[in-house]
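If it is no trouble, might I ask you for a protein's amino acid sequence along with its backbone structure tokens?
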Amino acid sequence: MKKVSLANELSSTSYPGRGIVIGRSEDGSKMVTAYFIMGRSTNSRNRIFVEDGEGIRTEAFDPSKLSDPSLIIYAPVRVLGNNTIVTNGDQTDTIYNLMNEQQTFEMALRTRSFEPDEPNFTPRISGIINVNDNKASYMMSILKSNNGNPDQCIRNIFSYDHPQAGEGHFIHTYMGDGNPLPSYEGEPTWVEISGDIDTFTNMVWENLNEENKVSLFVRYIDIATGTYESRIINKNK
């Protein structure tokens, strides 16, 4: 696999769906994560990110237009000790709760499957960052149907030790627009990570499709101290 420009990856399709980026900052001092949501329907576009404790949750921008909250209202980011959990659905809570009961990221995801939104069967994508004792690592996962067959769930887990400065991985739900929407294929894309938190946040937001982008969350976690900075951009204001 060749390391590629994240900006190019983001701008190359009008509809990657929801996406997670995890990596290490260019100067090596911080772990970086980004999570974005996009939407084609009025219901999906009617959302914002809001802070919720150490994490975030989605919320209807206009509650009167909310028609089905089941797959669009959830907590994408939660923090459990030294772990930051980032996902595209309510599996965030599954991972948080089961890891709090001494189970693992992998074990928690064994209890979940792709989303029941036939005919798309949207993949559940998840990530977790561990920062402890001046060391860092991360994992990413995708739970997807077998080429649209709802009778089989494919569960892939990717583990990254000793993340290198200036690089990371990007995973998203769809390969592009379509009907049904084509699920992501392959392992997470190896991408460049550059700039401080504001430069990085602006780069991601500017390269998402203007019509379909909805919200973006970015966090930089200091590897030495565990402290963090976060940014949220909502298209709805």
In short: The mean pLDDT is 97. The CA atoms of residues 115 and 139 lie 20 Å apart.
